[in-house]
């Protein structure tokens, strides 16, 4: 059995190969790309030759190679998996802490980091999550859902900037959005900002000008009248040049936000199309709190290799929903887990948040935690942990969600 530490950079990989006795068998730097994979295989082969004592030991099927790398996706990782290596995606924080515990020296080098990864895999591979041989469909879903979520986060940042700017010089727009519970990236609000970019323009607006923005809204005449009245309210005066400068910035922001919304809609359509073709889609969609996007995100992050998560605990640890206990002497603290897949955690918590609004069993479990004095976020995370375990059972048995089975031992008080 050989253990390889792979410290990757943008254009190369530093490799260190060790054996069970911690003896360093090879060190090398290989390039990125197909040539690098070929060189990787050559390095491992040469290291293997130094360990054999007879021709009988040259059996490729008997040689196991475990690779540790601070990466869990991408062509390089998939190529290693396809080549037959056991690949473990190590969390960077976990690798850093192991390196600190393994060596007192604060010296740092790429080769040293690779050696640390090799030793981490050698000593702790039984506790690490192996990167599975996921299908192309699952990998495609992960790529699309991550880009979709990044686009949503980018739009949120732009929207928050727009809100901050509007509050400084044109607070009526923010008040209108709050009145009708509309996000600032809503087409109506963006259209209103474009129509009245300054308070002076808002003071001259008429109901007839506002009505086209409310074409598909219920009771649009009354709403248009209220919006005109809100825009005509007096506010603290600002200079015309300052107002125009603000107007230029918000017009640019609205174009960025509108473009981001279009990008999100396009990605969501592709996410739904790819996810609907996945064989596990029906099981994911049967779970409480899971729709197309959340289901696709979880499917992409967990993958579809059936050997990747042997137990529900493995899946929970991967998603960071399982609590972490720290005990020393009389001190005992239960806290949130920090090492794992942040994308899966975000999706799992969003599932829990939706489940308490639409599933009576999930809500009862949440209320049970709250009645114990646990705050909202902690109770939501515990519910996410429970739902992750339920999902694992359904996927392992290829059976859709059944509340009678899922909550059989939960001792819940279900509201009538």
Automatic annotation (TrEMBL):
Residues 4-171 form the Transposase IS110-like N-terminal domain. Transmembrane segments: none annotated. Residues 285-367 form the Transposase IS116/IS110/IS902 C-terminal domain. GO terms for molecular function: DNA binding; transposase activity. It comes from the Bacteria. GO terms for biological process: DNA transposition. This is IS110 family transposase. It comes from Gordonia spumicola.
């Amino acid at each position: 059995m050989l253990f390889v530490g792979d410290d990757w950079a943008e254009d190369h990989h530093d490799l260190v190969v060790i054996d069970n006795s911690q003896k360093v068998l090879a060190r090398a730097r290989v390039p990125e790309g197909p040539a690098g994979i070929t060189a990787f295989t050559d390095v491992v082969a040469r290291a293997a030759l130094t360990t054999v004592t007879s021709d009988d030991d040259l059996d490729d099927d008997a040689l196991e190679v475990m690779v540790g790398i601070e990466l869990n996706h991408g062509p390089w990782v998939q190529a290693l998996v396809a080549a037959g290596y056991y690949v473990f995606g190590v969390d960077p924080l976990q690798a850093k802490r192991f390196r600190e515990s393994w060596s007192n020296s604060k010296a740092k080098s790429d080769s040293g980091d690779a050696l640390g990864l090799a030793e981490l895999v050698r000593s702790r591979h039984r506790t690490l999550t192996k990167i599975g041989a996921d299908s192309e469909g699952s990998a495609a879903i992960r790529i699309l859902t991550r880009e979709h979520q990044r686009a949503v986060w980018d739009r949120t940042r732009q929207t928050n900037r727009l809100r901050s700017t509007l509050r400084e010089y044109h607070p009526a727009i923010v008040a209108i959005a709050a009145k009708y519970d509309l996000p600032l990236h809503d087409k109506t609000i963006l259209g209103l900002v474009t129509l009245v970019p300054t308070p002076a323009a808002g003071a001259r607006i008429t109901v007839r000008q506002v009505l086209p923005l409310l074409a598909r809204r219920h009771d649009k005449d009354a709403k248009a009248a209220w919006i005109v009245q809100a825009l005509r309210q007096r506010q603290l005066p600002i200079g015309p040049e300052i107002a125009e400068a603000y107007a230029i910035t918000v017009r640019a922001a609205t174009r960025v936000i509108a473009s981001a919304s279009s990008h999100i809609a396009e990605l969501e359509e592709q996410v739904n199309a790819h996810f609907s073709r996945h064989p596990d889609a029906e099981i994911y969609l049967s779970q409480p709190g899971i729709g197309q996007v959340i289901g696709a995100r979880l499917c992409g992050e967990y993958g579809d290799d059936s050997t990747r998560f042997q137990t529900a605990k493995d899946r929970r640890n991967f998603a960071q929903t399982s609590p972490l206990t720290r005990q020393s002497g009389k001190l005992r603290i239960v806290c949130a887990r920090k090492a794992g897949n942040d994308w899966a955690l975000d999706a799992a918590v969003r599932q829990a948040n939706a489940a308490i609004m639409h599933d009576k069993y999930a809500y009862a479990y949440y209320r049970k935690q709250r009645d114990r004095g646990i705050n909202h976020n902690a109770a939501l995370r515990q519910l996410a942990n429970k739902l992750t375990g339920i999902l694992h059972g359904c996927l392992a048995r290829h059976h859709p969600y059944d509340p009678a089975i899922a909550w059989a031992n939960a001792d819940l008080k279900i509201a009538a």
